Structures are given as C-alpha cells and as structure tokens.
Amino acid sequence: MPGKSFLRNAFPRVGAVVSVAIGWLVVGASGFALGSFATLSWLGHAAADQQEPGLLPVVAPLLSSGATVAGETIVYPAGTPNVTAAVVTLAPGAETGWHRHGVPVFGYMLEGELTVTYDAQTSVGRSDSGSAGSNVRVLRGGDALLEAMAVLHNGRNTGSGPARILAVFMGAEGVPGTLPR
Does the reported pTM lie above 0.90? Predict the structure, then answer.
C-alpha cells in the first residue's frame, strides 16, 4: 500500500493507525476525475507487531461495489461534496414510503429486520426463499448495501422490534438525498 512506509517512519511511536476516508468523484468539464477514494486500511509497524496476539483490531470489509443493489452504476452528483450520515429507526410495521435517491446511499442494518420492495420491473437478486429475479430483499442486522438510486423502493419493518439503519448519503450541497414518489 503506497504511503505505508511513510506513515511508519513519520510516526515511529505510534503502534498502529486506522485510517478511514470517504472521497468523491468529481468530473470536470474536461472529463478528468479530480478525486475519488473510499478506503479503510490498517497501518502498523514493528511496535504493533510486538503486541500480544488478539489485541490488534480485525478489519472486516462490509461492502465493495461500483453498483447499487438494483445494478445501477454509482454516479456522484456534481457540485460541492456533502456527506450526511443518519440513523433511521422504524418501529415494527412502519414504512419508509415509496422513494428514490438523488445520491449514492450506503446502508448498514444495525438491528432488526427491514423488507424492501423495489419497482416491479427491478430484480435485486434472490429472495429469502431462494427464488431468482425477486424484487424484494430482506435485510437484517449486519447486512450492508448500496441502495437503489433511480429505482423506486419502499422499506417496511417486518420484525418484532425496532429496525435501525445507518444511512450514509454521499451527495452534494443542494442535492436532496431522498426523493419521495
């Protein structure tokens, strides 16, 4: 990984550094990408190697994709980047209402169960029953996804307790993250 040696040398007393960065793809009129990155990395050096086994964090990637759950290519909006993170909580039986997103949205189910129904013409893979081509997806605690952007969808808490979702909207100033039907 580029920069790993630099960080080890620049911070010799630091046993380890965890770096999290979320970036943007901003394409200028000339078509050049001005910046894009999303990385989670564990950087350590000899001092970290001297720690007792089991004391180092375990990094488990949740998701890596360039497409939404509906197969749409991720496209970032033009403008000044703005990232908003929110925890969305739905009581049992509550619904989000039919909507779409004007920006890429990363979702992580913190707890509960959410059944998301997508526009009838959209396939989001396999349903819980294993049938291919389903337009319904059931998410449970620990599940991650890049939510559909242009495809209408509705989420309903089908569990017995609250459904809590960490939603990270990767947008731009003035661009709404959620658009109602």
Answer: no
